[in-house]
Specification:
The chain is of the alpha/beta class. It contains 26 helices and 36 strands. Strands 13-12-21-20-19-14-18-17-15-16 form a ten-stranded mixed β-sheet. 43% of the residues are buried.
């Protein structure tokens, strides 16, 4: 800076001097007012002739004089009022100037704090890598940024303008790059020089700027500088204190600063009794007169300035320097940081002496800090930890070293690990074999990762149960005989896991809130935890570790200091750690060598492996005799009632309700268990199995069917007798030819509506395509009967299980009739969601029988469909000799030819040919009644003939529904004929409609 002034502050409104009061206009002579009385008096005298009238002429001059005197008095009054108003406005201006000066002064001291204030802020230095700001030498009068508009009227105005342009008691700053010399009494000069050094050290970064004492400096007054953390080392200027011991000028030769040609020149702060003893070329010389007065001289014709100097005592400076050194050590930039190794092996570190003795500690030595070995204790200082570090910073190596250090110090009975690695899984492979490790989850198997983390909720419940049974509030209070190890969950690349599974953030938050007393600890590592880890998690992470990061804000967010962003990239493992006491320190992480990993395994060789926190995924095949093994329970005794073969391992109800056919095994990772997938028809309604071709729909129906049939067979999964309608299960399988399916539907519907005893289970495979080839009337009727069975059969104890590949083919009423859905593999995630499933459970590679049941993964038990009994054979149509026949055929002439070839007389009926037919019948011999053959149109036209034949003849229909209605005259659908089987309907007197094979055999 070239002047002793301060930077301008923002002013709300401009100020201005009040304008000078204007003089009132001078009053003129009232000529008219003076002449009017004279003229009036003369006129009165002329009229009256009385001399007394002339007396009125004297009033004119008297009125004129009075008016002039009154005008002058009013002008004086206006001048006094204007002067008083200006004085008032001037006083307000002076007060406003004072207030703005106060704000300007406060802003100036905030930008350039005094040395005294900096001494009070030793814990919060404002270190910067750029050049330090100007040094505050003291306080004095500086040029104000305040400006007053208007021209001065008098000396008072000029005083106001001068007072506004001067800011008293302002910080007096000087650019120290040209050097500053202090002369006078040495104790005063040193005190002022110490204040300048404090100013410089408060702003200069210790790793960028050095502060030293030049050779030949007298006495021990500057020994306190050795405590400062400023050692420099980079191409930046530092500060050199000079105090000639012999009073002679000499060249500057700092003891450790680099030669002049290798770095910019250092700032010089010199102390001497007289100016002649100072080094030449200093830009500023401060002459100390008294403790409260000094004169500042600078070259180039700059006027001298007076100020009250800033003084700092040696004891104050020494204490402040020690505090600053402590701050630097915690930030990892102190002198002790140079003692840290570039590589440190975990083998050589001293282990905690009390490790593994009780449950209240998880101490482990993970590296070395400036003050010695670095020990972290998740149990006492945690419960959780946050680790940051960019690629190549050594983050994964630090996590591995911490895991190995814990494994060496604590047995599996005291600590276990769940390791989650979302960058390929290679980081934790060296410790996979340790008995402490319950499992390693990677992003290579996302479903496994989700299962493992979701299982943690059940782990918390399990631990709460153990503590409740033991009557303990905290895991540290448990006796040694209670088997419950602390669980350390280490997540590398936490950000990637949350991006892939956002819902897991709530699980992590729950663990963070409840993990302390339950003995579950989180170590969350990410390249940039800021903004990724929720506040409720970070609030429970007092242990903070930041290896090298790229942004200062990332370092500050994790450890409260930007120092982690200043770590060189060639020092992997170097970082800043807050061990839980709020004081971050520099440290270097240890490296877990193969030897120490082997040692950890050998030390734990005699211990059982830690309890795993989650189960493996369901197998792709489950044989009926392997169900109990998959469920993790012993087989029930022979002859026992086949209910759930496993006692639930967690809280809440299993996926089934403990009754009904068990057709598969459900995976419940959030409860750390598996259970039978049970279907309770009375409660749940019909079951619809949905899945693409090859997904195992038929196998699922077979499993349900076998469970219903073998409800009492030992070792088999079967239906509960109560839900099956009582007694042994009867199953109606609607399979085989279309005629058999139709007859089964008709019989089942009839039994549900009050006929014979209904079946307990109706099984219908391929519901969406089963009726596709049927005539439209039969197709609609079949769907209506299925819907009726599902809705009405529930009250009669009839369970309906059907399968389909497409849900959209089924009508809305039929879709809604089924109360439960078993969703097997679908072609796409969207198809699964449209079927009512959870999209996140969709797997493109699912095998047959894999799917979801009530929102959870399920694997259907393998079952071979029960052989379907052969359908009753359809007899061949044989015409009785004693009965007349009426035949309705789609092709009557061809039908007549077949009948004739079979040895019977066929009479062809055509529209309007009823009289001819009657005549032909009457002429025919009685021993062999003729067969009348016509199409639908002919029979409809011959309604009287048809009515007569329906009472005494046998009716044969070889065609479709149109021919049947024309001849039989019934709106009820006859039994369905198998397509392509050459079948026809026959209705003999006194009997129902039956099927027969057409054509009629010859010579029958």
């Amino acid at each position: 800076m070239d002047r002793f002034d301060i930077a301008p502050v923002s002013l709300d409104t401009p100020l201005a001097l009040p304008p000078a009061p204007a003089d009132p206009a001078a009053a003129g002579f009232p000529l008219i007012a003076s002449l009017a009385p004279v003229v009036g008096a003369l006129a009165l005298w002329a009229i009256t002739g009385s001399p007394f009238s002339l007396v009125f002429a004297v009033l004119g001059p008297i009125v004129a004089i009075g008016s002039m005197l009154d005008a002058r008095r009013s002008a004086r009054r206006l001048r006094r009022r204007a002067s008083a108003e200006r004085r008032r406005r001037l006083d307000e201006l002076v007060a406003e100037i004072g207030q703005r000066h106060d704000l300007e002064r406060a802003a100036a001291w905030h930008r350039s704090p005094s040395s005294r204030r900096l001494l009070e802020q030793s814990e919060h230095p404002a270190w910067r890598e750029s050049a330090p700001p100007p040094i505050v030498l003291g306080r004095g009068a500086a040029a104000s940024a305040l400006r007053i508009d208007g021209s001065p009227v008098d000396a008072g105005d000029r005083e106001v303008l001068l007072a506004a342009a001067r800011l008293d008691d302002a910080p007096m700053c000087v650019d120290a790059r040209a050097g500053v010399g202090f002369v006078g009494e040495l104790h005063l000069a040193r005190a002022a020089a110490r204040a300048s050094v404090v100013q410089f050290a408060h702003h200069a970064h210790p790793q960028q700027f050095a502060i030293e004492v030049a050779e030949g400096t007298r006495g021990t007054h500057w020994e306190w500088l050795r405590a400062l953390p400023h050692r420099g080392g980079h191409a930046r200027a530092g500060l050199v204190v000079v105090e000639p011991a012999d009073g002679k000028q000499r060249p500057l030769r700092p003891s450790k600063l680099a030669p002049q040609g290798e770095r910019p020149p250092a700032v010089v702060v010199a102390v001497a009794r007289t100016a002649s003893e100072l080094p030449p070329g200093l830009g500023t010389i401060v002459t100390m007169q008294t403790p409260d007065a000094a004169i500042v001289r600078r070259p180039h014709g700059v006027a001298e300035m007076e100020l009250a100097p800033a003084l700092v005592g040696i004891a104050e400076a020494a204490g402040w320097a020690n505090s600053l050194a402590a701050v630097a050590e915690r930030a990892g930039i102190g002198a002790g940081s140079n003692d840290l190794p570039r590589r440190l092996e975990l083998d050589g570190l001293q282990r905690p002496p009390d490790a593994g003795r009780d449950r209240s500690s998880l101490a482990a030595t993970v590296g070395r800090a400036a003050g010695g070995a670095l020990r972290l204790d998740l149990a006492r200082c945690g419960p959780h930890a946050l680790v940051a570090g960019t690629t190549g910073s050594g983050k994964s190596e630090f996590l591995l070293a911490w895991i190995v250090a814990l494994a060496v110090a604590h047995p599996p009975a005291r600590v276990s690990f769940l390791l989650v690695d979302f960058k390929g899984g290679a980081a934790f492979e060296p410790v996979r074999g340790l008995p402490h490790v319950t499992g390693i989850v990677t992003d290579l198997d996302e479903s496994e990762a989700e299962r493992a983390v979701l299982s943690l909720r059940a782990e918390l419940t399990h631990r709460e149960t153990v503590l409740a049974r033991a009557g303990a509030r905290d895991i540290a209070e448990l006796d040694d005989g209670v088997d419950l190890a602390r669980l350390v969950i280490v997540v590398d690349e936490f950000q990637a896991m949350i991006e892939r599974f956002p819902e897991l953030g709530a699980v992590i938050g729950d663990i963070a809130a409840r993990g302390r007393s339950l003995g579950v600890h989180l170590v969350l590592a990410s390249q940039r935890p800021n903004g990724v880890v929720r506040e409720q998690v970070t609030a429970n992470c007092p242990i903070r570790v930041s290896l090298r990061v790229l942004q200062r804000s990332d370092s500050e967010a994790v450890v409260g200091t930007p120092s982690a962003a200043e770590i060189p990239p060639d020092l992997p493992g170097r970082g800043i750690v807050d061990p839980g006491d709020g004081c971050p320190v520099l440290f270097h992480s240890a490296v877990a060598t193969p030897a120490v990993i082997t040692e950890a395994g050998e030390r734990a060789a005699g211990f059982p492996r830690a309890r795993r926190t989650w189960l493996d995924p369901l197998p792709s095949r489950i044989a009926p005799d392997a169900v109990h093994r998959v469920l993790g329970a012993p087989r029930p005794a022979a002859g026992s009632v086949n209910r759930s073969p496993v006692e639930p391992a967690g809280d809440g109800e299993p996926a089934g309700d403990g009754s009904g056919p068990g057709f598969g095994v459900v995976d419940e990772p959030e409860r750390q268990r598996r259970s039978l997938a049970r279907w309770a028809p009375r409660r749940d309604g019909g079951l619809l199995v949905l899945g693409m071709p090859g997904s195992g729909r038929t196998t699922a129906l077979a499993a349900i069917e076998l469970a219903a049939i073998d409800s009492a067979a030992p070792g088999r999964v079967a239906a509960d007798s109560a839900s099956a309608g009582g007694g042994a299960s009867s199953v109606l399988r609607l399979t085989g030819p279309s005629s058999a399916v139709w007859d089964g539907l008709v019989a089942a519907q009839s039994s549900v509506r009050g006929g014979a005893a209904p079946p307990s289970l109706v099984v219908l495979d391929d519901l969406d395509t089963r009726f596709r080839a049927w005539p439209e009337e039969y197709r609609h009727a079949a769907f209506a009967m299925v819907e009726s069975l599902v809705r009405e059969g529930r009250g009669r104890g009839v369970a309906v299980a059907a399968s389909a590949a497409s849900l959209q083919v089924l009508g809305s009423g039929l879709r809604e009739a089924f109360g439960e859905r078993l969703l097997l593999r679908h072609a796409s995630r969207s198809d699964l969601v449209q079927s009512g499933g959870r999209g996140e459970l969709w797997r493109a590679g699912d095998g047959a029988g894999a799917g979801q049941w009530r929102g959870r993964r399920v694997q259907v038990i393998e079952a071979t469909p029960v052989a379907t009994p052969a359908s009753p054979a359809v007899p061949t149509l044989r015409l009785r000799q004693d009965l007349p026949y009426a035949v309705a055929a789609a092709t009557p002439r061809a039908a007549a030819a077949v009948i004739t070839e079979a040895g019977r007389t066929a009479i062809l009926l055509v529209p309007g040919g009823e009289p001819a037919v009657r005549a032909a019948v009457a002429a025919h011999p009685l021993e062999a009644p003729p067969v009348i053959v016509g199409d639908a149109e002919a029979w409809a036209a011959s309604w009287s003939l048809a009515a007569a034949l329906r009472e005494e003849a046998a009716l044969v229909v070889h065609g479709g529904a149109a021919e049947y209605r024309a001849l039989v005259r019934s709106r009820e659908l006859p039994p369905l004929l198998d397509a392509g089987a050459g079948q026809c309907w026959i209705l003999e007197p006194g009997q129902g409609v039956g099927r027969a094979i057409w054509p009629i055999p010859r010579n029958h």
